[in-house]
Structure formats: structure tokens, C-alpha cells
Amino acid sequence: MPDPKGFLTHGRQTAPRRPVPVRISDWREVYLPASDELLTAQASRCMDCGIPFCHDGCPLGNRIPDWNDLVRTGRYDAAAEQLYATNNFPEFTGRLCPAPCEAACVLGIASDAVTIKQVEQAIGDRASLAPLLPSLSTGRRVAVVGSGPAGLAAAQQLVRAGHAVTVFERDDAPGGLLRYGIPDFKLEKTVLEARLDQLRAEGVVFSCGVEVTDVAALRAEFDAVLLAVGALAGREVDTPGRQFSGVHQAMEHLVEANRWIAFGEQPAIDAAGKHVVIIGGGDTAADCLGVAHRQGAASVTQLDRYPVPPTSRDGERDPWPTWPWLLRDYAAHEEGGERAFGVAVSEFEGADGRVTGVRIDEVTVVDRVATPVPGTTRVLPADLVLLAIGFAGTDSPLGLAQGGRIPAADDWQTAVDGVFVAGDAHRGASLIVWAIAEGRAAASSIHSYLGAPGALPAPVSPASRALAV
């Protein structure tokens, strides 16, 4: 029985962050581990409400009230059992997901939502990673193309069901965006490696440095194929001056920074001593901001074409329990830099082939169309410009994409028999919880397609969408 007064006794509190001067001098995670006392208090705030809308806020259908109460009473092993029933990788989601479950928390209607993702991460960090081996072998072979969250979740579900699974990854090591797209200050790679070691122990084979270009040939070798290749093609701009050296896609910057930390490879795109302008206001932009600080940028300015969001939910625009448009301050914003809202770039200025500045105007935005406000033009100095304006779709050369996405039938199959798709390659760039949910659901369909006994969990369908008005 949950504590009926827990949310009255305790206010919302998250784990402390390491001091800014300390953390920007290294690449370790920003947050310190939450204490048992903090976790007990925060888990006790969960009301076990009659209708837990947090279940619908998260596409994984996590049993949030169940494991919150188990953490409240210190039963972390039992909490892990409940969490693993719906989520393969809580140590990832607890660090990286923006937590739509918290936006849908009933307590959030009149107070501050439960710190769901904090408790989730703590369960994942404390849980055993002992391999779970299948009791039988089906004799079926499955190829998974892509080793991001969708591919890893599907691979783990399938190998535990007794199938032989090989994961093909075009990079030199598995993990996808978890390895080369997410900075270490958000996800230290030791966390990723621990989970990969578990998958290997369970029987998953990783074949890295392999670019799959012929689906038919792969299908001829395997009984089923899952495409989980992500949506890594960055959205481009046709702004004058785009050709200048020093203007890059954000992901280029992040990948080089991650390889620098992992292998000591000197990045060609380095913010050290430079005036950096980041175009975009989302997670990727904040990641670039944190990287620029750690590389020693002279200045960093982040541009957002939309006006300053409200600090609390606008019930008319975004009624509970939908995901609200809010001003979100990431840890990187605490570390420095400037933010400019309601502005758009009209030109990249340059000299001798290199960018030297960004010409911007204040704008009004109606139906996503930005209109410059006369007389508001100004120029920001810029030696490095990073485009963090989203992703256009999958960049995998498989020939199945339509409009940047690979369509799927109701059973997650593509137009090719026995070839399935899941994650961002199907949905478009989205949240890690959606990637894991789609990977699990596609694995369930593959399991049925192969005629294996029993059924695997399928939390979403190809048509599933996030809570919206």
C-alpha cells in the first residue's frame, strides 16, 4: 500500500549535479548518484492513483506505481523485475528520456510530478545484469541491422526467446547513437558496455564495420531481418553562405567529440577558442552546448526561432496529460552560453571561404513560417556554426524508404517478406522509449512470423502515437 501522504510530506527533488567548474573540466556524467534516502522519499510521492496516466505517457507501458512502491520499501530487486517486464534498458531511459510519463503524472495536475525517471535510473543502476539464457533453441536465425536502442531491444527479446541473433552495425562498435551521438556527460560509455556484455553473454553476435546495402542478400541468409537503422540524415538549410567552412551538422560535431573521448582522435570540428553559434532549441542543441563548453569555446550562443516558452503548462494549448511546450533548462544551460529566442538566420557571413558571422533577424512564427521583423537585423560573430534543427529521416541505402521513413504493415513487415522495421527508421527521429517499444513490438511479430511457441510483449503498433490533443 503506497504512502497516502507521501506527496504531501515530500516535495519534488532530483539528485544533485556536480559543480559547474568541476564537471566542465571532464566528460563524466553531470548528475551524482541519488542517495537511498532521496529515492525513498521521492518514490513515496507516487500516489498509486486509480488511473495511472503515466502508463499511457510512456509507450513502454512501464508499471510505474508498482516499482515506485517497491523502491519506497527498499525492495530494489523486486522493482527491477517489474521494470524489466516492460523496459529492457532502464539505465538508458532513466538518463536520456525527457520523461513523457512525468508530464502525464496525475500529481502534476496540482503539484510537481513524481521524479519517475530518477527512480527508474536508480533501479536500472542497481539491477543485476546476469544473462538470461533461453531454455530452448528454435534453430531460427535473425539479422538485426543497427545497434541503437531499437535494434538492441529487439535483439535481446529474440535471443532470450531462443533465436540466434546477429546484429550488424556500420560503425566500429555497437551502440548507435548511444555510443557516438550521446555525450559522455549524459551517458558514460561504461554503462553501455555493461549492457552490451550482457547481450553478448546471452548469445547476441555483433558484426561491426558492416554497411548493409542489399536487403535481399541478407534475407537469403537469415530467416528474418529487422531494419533498425535509425534516422540520422540531418535536416539541411538553403541559407546563403551554407557552403562556408565551419558550418556543420550538429551530429558531425557530436560524433567527433565522442570519438575523441573514446580513442583520443583529435576532432576536425573543435569548439576550442571559437565563437560558437548553435541553431536549434532541442536535446541535440543542448548536447552541442555542453560539448562546446568542455572543448573550451570562447562563447556559445544558441538560437531558437520560436518565442520563449512558458515556464508552466498552458492548459489550453497543451492540456494534461499531453506533452507540454515548456521552457526546458538543460544542465548545459547552467554551464554558460547565451540563448536567443524568436530569431532566425538569414545569412552566414564569411571570408576566405570560412564562416565569420551569422546574420539574424527577430521573427514572428505562424504555422511554422518565420517572418522577419523589419529593423531587427544583427550579426553574431561565429567561427563554428552547428545545425541542430532535427533529422530528415533515415540515411541507410536500402531502397525501402519513402519520405525518409521505411513504412511498415500492421505486423511491422516492410514491402519485402520477412524483412521488418522498427525505431526511428520507421517512426522518424523520436524518443528512446519509442525506439525500445518499437523494437520490442517488432521482435514479437518476428517471433510469431518464425512460428515459435508462445508470444512476446508488443507494447505498441506501427500506428501508435504519443498522447496529443
Q: What does this protein structure show overall?
A:
This protein is α/β, with parallel strands linked by helices and 469 residues long. The chain is built from 18 helices and 16 strands. The strands form four sheets. The chain has a five-stranded parallel sheet with strand order 3-2-1-4-16, with helices on both faces. A five-stranded parallel sheet has the order 6-14-7-8-9. The chain is globular. The two termini are 33 Å apart.
Topology at a glance:
Elements: H1 6-9, H2 20-23, H3 36-43, H4 54-57, H5 64-72, H6 76-84, H7 90-96, H8 100-103, H9 116-126, E1 141-145, H10 149-160, E2 164-169, H11 177-180, H12 189-202, E3 205-208, H13 215-221, E4 224-227, E5 233-234, E6 247-249, H14 250-263, E7 275-279, H15 283-295, E8 299-304, H16 331-334, E9 338-341, E10 343-351, E11 354-366, E12 369-372, E13 378-381, E14 384-387, E15 391-393, E16 419-421, H17 424-427, H18 432-449
Parallel strand pairs: 1-2, 1-4, 2-3, 4-16, 6-14, 7-8, 7-14, 8-9
Antiparallel strand pairs: 5-15, 10-11, 11-12, 11-13
Spatial extent as radius of gyration: 23 Å
**Strand order, biggest sheet?**
3-2-1-4-16
User: What does the largest sheet look like?
Assistant: 5 strands, parallel
* Terminal Cα span: 33 Å
Put simply, the count of helices is 18
Which class do the helix and strand fractions yield? alpha/beta
